[in-house]
Amino acid sequence: MLGITAIVYFSFSLIRKSRVVKETQLIESEHFSLNYKGILKSEAEEMSSALESNYHRIRIELDDPNHDKINVFVHPTQKDFNTATGLKNSTANGTSRGPFAFHLKFETWYNSFLPPDMNKVAVHEFTHCVQLNILIQDAIAKKKFKNEDFDKEFEKFYLENYPQWFWEAICDYEAGMVNKTSVNYGMKGNPTLKELNTSNQIYNVGYTIPEYLVSIYGKEKLPDFIKSYCNFEKVLGVSEQEFENGWHKYVSENY
Ligand SMILES: [Zn+2]
Fold first, then answer.
1. Which of 167, 200, 209, 240 has its CA 20 to 30 A from that of 231?
2. Whole-number Å distance between alpha carbons of 4 and 225
3. CATH superfamily of the 20-130 domain
4. CA–CA separation, 242 and 18 (whole Å)
5. CA of 111 to the centre of ligand 1 (A)
6. Sheet architecture: strand order including 70-75
7. Residue 238 burial (10 A CB sphere; 0-12, 13-18, 19+)
8. Model-level pTM greater than 0.85?
9. What's the 100 CA to ligand 1 centre distance in angstroms?
């Protein structure tokens, strides 16, 4: 039985290999330039449509100011992805490069155990670009840093002050990346938000944090929450711990 399964799997893998696009191709849509190779043309077209159909919803919801066209680079293997991004020994399937570019490693049943929905991964990475654009434009508007040192000072300030848990959580939320089993697994021991800054469990539970925020305080708080670098007191009128307790309770009741 296993032998037959293996042969069928191997055959499909060969068929896929013969059908994927060998040379880099480009799909230009209104807001994205999608560069791809090593995946099917139909997969690239679906991703391009998924990005365009989520573009306005997310930018309106988070109040993103003007946004230049975004370059998307889709790679077929981890090696291609790591070479293109300069990441060493990375196992990531996506990373953003500033507000106007992101890279994806396209995962399928042939190169991944339980591959994710790559269209959702693309929307997740796009949301990173949106967050960065909002923070950069806001810093420019408020003249937060001196022009000549802007890039360096912004990056330093961002790395020291923007919480990693929210950086990921809002992307999973906007991309609709959530499932009950993973949430329950990740919520074992009720992690604090601070713990999620350095834990992979953020990818299991991240969606539920903005979901809870929106359910109690409303979607319209999201833009200010981002621009405040996640200041609970100022934007939501509660302490981080009060929010955390409410979130724990919300997840235990809803998942
Ligand atoms: Zn991410």
1. 200
2. 54
3. Collagenase ColT, N-terminal domain (3.40.30.160)
4. 55
5. 20
6. 25-28, 32-36, 70-75, 101-105, 94-96
7. middle
8. yes
9. 15
In angstroms, what is the span from residue 95 Cα to ligand 1's centroid? Answer: 7
Q: Looking at the chain, which residues constitute the CATH 3.40.30.160 domain(s)?
A: 20-130
71-104 pLDDT, tens digit per residue, is 999 999 999 999 999 999 999 999 999 999 999 9
Question: What residues pair up with 101 in beta bridges, in sequence order?
Answer: 71
> In the 8-state DSSP scheme, what is residue 31?
S
Compute the distance from residue 237 Cα to the ligand 1 centre, in Å.
27
DSSP 8-state secondary structure symbol assigned to residue 188: T
DSSP string, 95-162: EE-STTEEEEE---TTTSSS---HHHHHHHHHHHHHHHHHHHHHHHHTT-S-GGGHHHHHHHHHHHHS
